[in-house]
Protein 1
Amino acid sequence: MAKATITFEDINITVTVPAGTRVIEVSEKVGSAITYGCREGDCGTCLMKITDGWNNLSEPSVLEDKILRENMAGKHNRLACQAQLLTGHISVKPA
Amino acid sequence: MNRIVLESPDGVPVAVPLSERVHWVGAFDPHLRTFDIILKTANGTSYNAYVVRGSEGVAVIDTVKEGFADVFFARLESVADYAEIKVIVLNHLEPDHTGALPELMRRAPGAQLYISQKAQSMLKGLLKQENLHFTPVVTGDTVSLGDRSLQFLHTPYLHWPDTQCTYLPEEAMLFSGDVFGCHFCDDRLFNDRAGDFRFSFEYYYAHIMRPFKEYVLRALELIEPLPLKLIAPTHGPILRDRPDRYIQRYRQLSSPALHSEISPQQKTLLIFYISSYGNTRRMAEAIYQGALQVDDVRVSLYDLEGGEVAPFVDLIEEADGLILGTPTINGDAVKPIWDLLSSLTVVNLKNKLGGVFGSYGWTGEGVRLVEDRLRGLKLRVPIPGLRVKLIPTDDEILECKAFGLELAQELMGLREAKMINFADLA
Ligand SMILES: Cc1cc2nc3c(=O)[nH]c(=O)nc-3n(C[C@H](O)[C@H](O)[C@H](O)COP(=O)(O)O)c2cc1C
Ligand code: FES
Ligand SMILES: [Fe+2]
Ligand SMILES: [Fe+2]
């Protein structure tokens, strides 16, 4: 099965996950400080910063793009409840 | 003292001037006793809305709760024709200020709606219409009314995500929305005339603004530099006598009460427990001993039975980590724990470290349930909860010490880098 790895920089933990896993499925279990509200890409609470491996994530959907814009997100920001880990290595931290 | 005229001689509500160009067009709700489920008021509230007249058009800032629309429209009509209205501003979309919006938009089809950037998707949820026309604005955006203009300040989470304030520089007036407001109904309308509303001001802050202190401080950075003659909030008295005092009070209330004695590199860790036969207490004491081993962690141990909730909430607000111990009784954590947890919604817990432990007899659900609740409250819970069946053995006491040590190290950022496989996560 295809794999990806994600490092949560705030707690210094790296997890190997099956490709397609969403960040939300991992971050709470390991105790990263990324926090969640609606859990479905609507509220912007789970904004995170991608410090490495931007292109190893799924493309933002139209909805995610809209919420990122409403929340005046920077160009390294994604929603942790939406972004899927596809391949290679990705590093994130709370925005 | 000349009375404020609220109605014409034949009993029609009229607007009240704040200046030659600015009028109050709000409504009083003296018999309201409960607001938003979470607030009480002993004399009701007001829904304040305002009209600003420029040489090239009129702006309406906020409206009222739906049931009070008639009074609002009567006051509005006493100072403006609908055709003159070019601008409608909503400082946040809560229904107590947007109830008359659909009708206002119908009556003033030439008006453009200005809402904050963060209000866009909410507006759809509120009006249930597609193809709405509006202009999203952020800090620095302005709209001209000719010789008067409105400047927008993005002040999110005071108290809704979409909250903004609107400044009228030519008159040094701030239309602050719910910020600096209170539920206090007094038809003398101005702070230098109304009854003593200080307790309402404090109460409103404590229940509505306190969860968002860090956002209050950011908003104050935008508000404090403004020349201000008057603050016009959406509830309670209009603050025209020394408005700066209310701004100072918000700053005080949003800053720590007493500076804690600890040095900046130290962190505070609180352990709260409750115990019927002493088993969860024995765990708590061992966890405390474990945490004490880490330098710069200021750890304290408290029995929930020995205190009231409110001071514990104050303590938790300023702490860096929170560990809760509960036995499982009838398949759940116990009520004092839930009472504490349900009182924590008035403070910001985001990113605090959380941990849970407890003794149990046969099922032990309490610990997991509280862990889930802590995550729900936006604490991070990196170390799985620790459960002990009935009386802790010597070995289990050592496990408790290790648990306390590990949490304290986590708090100080001392845990080593770790590699984990997804399948191994609980
Ligand atoms: C003081 C206050 C705080 C609120 N906080 C939240 C919140 O944190 N998250 C949320 O999704 N909605 C929040 N809301 C919005 C309410 O859930 C929303 O207005 C809802 O439609 C109210 O439903 P009701 O009419 O059944 O009371 C809040 C509303 C108020 C008045
Ligand atoms: S949790 Fe609401 S957008 Fe991700
Ligand atoms: Fe409100
Ligand atoms: Fe309000």
Note: Residues 16-254 of chain B form a domain with the Metallo-beta-lactamase; Chain A fold (CATH 3.60.15.10).
Protein 2
Amino acid sequence: MEKFGFSLQKARVINYDSNDRSIVEYVLEREPSLKLCIECGCCSAACTTGNFTDFSLREMHILLKRGENNEVRNKIKKCMLCGKCILVCPRGVNTRNVVFLAKQAFQKYSAHAV
Amino acid sequence: MVNEGKKRVWSDYQKEIADDHFFYVRSCIRQSFYPGSEQFFLNFLRNDLGKDVYENPSHTTCTGIGYHGDIVPFSTTQTVVARHFALMKESGYKNIAISCVTSFGIYTEILETWKHFPEELEKTREYLFKATGREFDIPENMAHTSDIIYKFRNEIAAKIKYPLINKQTGKPLKVVEHIGCHYAKMFPKHGVGGAEFPRVLSGMAEAWGGEVVDYPERRHCCGFGFRQYLVQANRGYSLSNTVKKFESMRPYEPDLVLTNCPGCNMFMDKWQYTAKEMEGMTFGSNGQSIPVLTYEELAGLVLGYNPWDLGLQYHMVQSEPLLRKMGIEINSEDKYRTKDGRQMPIPQNLINA
Ligand code: SF4
Ligand code: SF4
């Protein structure tokens, strides 16, 4: 790279044309209740992992739906699959299954292997 | 909507452009970067159309770059512009023709300020009189030079030699037009088509046979942004804006970018070089960059002027791919030769050459 004394910042627009929605599609097919999520964040508030780390299940849901998988791929490993989030979700989303299926999808598509 | 109604609505988006007797004001950077543009404008108006265009040698900068860079206070800018109006009054002209969109933005901002805050106008009259002993009138008509070319676009179309058609495929060339933020975004009524339907460049491109590309970031900034650029460490903001715009137009494979403002032209041209050097990015078809032309350069090309007389070789992105598509014959040996036949130094690392 030439040294110009400044650099190029990547655009922060959400580009649905180039983003990869294959992971969320895999999850939605098997756990359609994710469609009901209103991104209220109750799950994040109840989450023990979220209490001690920067993990937020709501954030995972948002990023998955946008097809921004890179961050989700690593962060989602932090979930302990304890299921506390299911108890508080006002929309009845089977959140633990969402996490489980997302992990499975990352494993399944070799390009995304965890 | 019936045709009648459409016409009435559209008339609100029109501006009155004077027909003759222009007091021409120069830009700071245009003559150095795109010398052929100004020459074309003056020559076309004076010699081809027989119009009266007067240029006063005492005219100075409008302070626009300093004003938007936060180093010139607004009262100073108003007084400098008032001095230009005084020169115009002394020379006996009433129609001003401004050749830079930054200046055009400054002039419109000042005229609107004086309309809404008459006390600013009085203060400026006083400052100018105390400093120079001059007095001024507000122009009767204010046009950007592109407005004037737009007004005479059909006269150009009537004499067209190389329409904007791809000779190899017979299809219209795809033109990205960039009118510049300060042309009509701030004070829409001063621009042809207002802020919503700017017609000034698209009108020209279509009149000369081209097809205008409507892409998502069509109205996005060219990246100049003044403050973003003037401090070196901030230039990444400027470049990132330009790259965002070019990435958005890339899928449409435009054949050229047509600009309204000398600043936009500089950034859309030179940042393509920077993006290529930094990240290896190109935005045109076949891994090439997109030539960026001013409206006068394009008008000159379609009329059959020699591209080297129009100064196309002074751009960073070279126009040869476009010239080939238009079927314009070029002599590469003359590219860097002066009129009296001397060889000029040949620049290195040019794009598309
Ligand atoms: S609690 Fe339920 S609705 Fe709220 S963000 Fe979590 S999954 Fe979505
Ligand atoms: S299942 Fe995962 S996301 Fe839900 S509360 Fe437990 S650790 Fe948090």
Note: The pocket of iron/sulfur cluster (ligand 2) is lined by residues A 43, 46-50, 57, 79-85, 95-96, 99 (CB under 6 Å).
